Amino acid sequence: MSARKTLRGKYNIPSNQDGKPFVIFNLGNDIIPEKLKNALVKGDIKNIFVIGQGTAAVAGAAIAEALSRYLRGCEINIAAKTASELSGFFLEENLNHTLVIAVTQSGTTTDTNRAVAMARERDAHLIAIVNRRQSDITHVTDGVFYTSDGRDIEMSVASTKAFYSQIVAGYILALYFAQILGMMSDERVARELSDLEDAPDKMNDVISTKERIRESAWAIAKAKKYWAVVGSGPNKVAADEIRIKLSELCYKTMSSDIVEDKKHIDLSSEPLIIVCAAGNPEPVVEDIIKDVAIFKAHSAGVVVIADEGETRFNGIADSVISVPGASFPTSMILNTIAGHIWGYYAACSINEDGDFFRSFRSKLSRKMSELDRKNVSLFERIANTGLHRLVGEFSSAFRSRKSKGFFSSMSVDVASDITLLLKYVTGKLPLEDFWEEFKEKRTSSSPLDMLDLCLGHTIDELSRPIDAIRHQAKTVTVGTSRKGEMLEGILFDLLSKLGFSLENLTSKDGTAARRLQKAITGIKGHTLYAIENLDIEGKPGEDTTISISGRGGVSLEMKSRFEKPGPLSGTKKTIISMGDIYAGLGKSDKEPIIIMPLLSKAHIIGYILLVHVKFKEDLTASEKKEVLGEKFNKINNLVNEYNLQWNDKCLEGLSIEFLLGEGVDVIVGKMMKLLEDSTFR
Questions:
Q1: Topology of domain 2-197, per CATH?
Q2: What's the pTM value of the predicted model, to 2 decimals?
């Protein structure tokens, strides 16, 4: 684990002749330059600022707390500042009496690096705590303390291991400073380091209880709309860090307060309050017990993180998460890791609500498709018993969940609309009332269409795509967005040349394009069509038009009926409706083409790119399978249904444009003839 790697090799604890331990730190000039060490010993350092942004700033607050504890009695002003605050308000003309400890995960955080550069111009002493070797910040500081082994390259806000290891690194620095300044005995320094060595094992102990933490999150997270995290003393740092991760994981705006302050702040919203209580001294714990009782008296939901064996919260908190007993900073770390795990499962719990609506929407869509095939009118749909049964089952489950306090993250407006629409789509309320009541919202005369739209909004509100935080980190922490980057390859190169990026492709089309370009040897030309007047869902209608927006290559010599805008029809209309890439032969000239639907800024199809290509003629059967993707599985399955044994030689006898452009039935019909041929037996 990262925290253990950060400790490794930084010190040694032998014993003297009396059997008493003493500490030999292994922090060379690359971490603590001799110039800085001399300035500390001589008393020339008057200020220590620990800076960072976001999570790193929270870790900086913990490091500043450690420095304040272990250098108590020194005439050094110690403070934690966000990097932007330091550069904006606390820089003096001469900082040769100041040490700036910059905490950063990536080493490329713009605000932090700017503050370091400005402090360097003013002759400040500079140390970086960073987890990436050769990152930008390592070239401008005097010393660098690498967390872990300096090779962790994660740059995600969700990288909690960086937070823990940053605190461990800062703690080692604080104890080293205390030793060289004579503020702590070797025995005490050794004891503190030994306690810190237990942190990784205790963290693993907390992780081993994740199932109980999951039960806590699933029992309460859905029931409260407004959340807060509280902690006192060092645990205020834990509360701040948990707040950051929960807001990112659960898409919640929440506060972080000192425990004692919370009862003086408006509790009428009946919030969910996570209390970081582990590791506090007994008098503080006694006060927190009283505060938790006050929270409950205001109908708040309360989750308490407490030391193992602490039972006094059991009768007053909704949930108690136990962590191993420990002293600072391990206790603060254990509060934090418990809160991180709780937040992850809280996000999963909320997302499960989204899955509930997603499942119903899928079933409703299949039912509508079935009725579409039967050409059933709106009035007949509303009277359909199968639809009544489907909606009735969902309505019952919806009411049951709602009565238990679920869907707290769902807007009141959407919840109210769904409740009404469930009655309209089954005829319990007159259709004409729907037309009037929803006249400002509806996009059609059908309450079924409106219900589908509302279900989509609900799914958006309740979905918690946790992995998306990785991208968020690249845009916020590192300051470099990857949204517009393009993959490599013959098709992607053309898209890039025409000014399109990955954002103009759906994920399924991007995947298909990557497969298809493996079958292309060259591009002979292209035509870019603009699509106008799609409906609100991005589907073509009677008013949808198509016109040429740009051309290149052989396309310049071709005539087209779309020189001026005309109605969308044929293959291109099918492509817009389905949103899928087409590859095969042109309908009229039988020339090899690929047609790609491209998204506009509104995230609906705004363009179609027709590419005249040259397909490879020497693809092996294995390569053809890869290019076909899921279509090959359909072909194979259909062949097996005819009780014929599959043979890859069938693929070798068919061109890739035929395999891509024809339907599965046509392809299998051709293959059956080949399979019946004696040469394939």
A1: Rossmann fold (3.40.50)
A2: 0.63
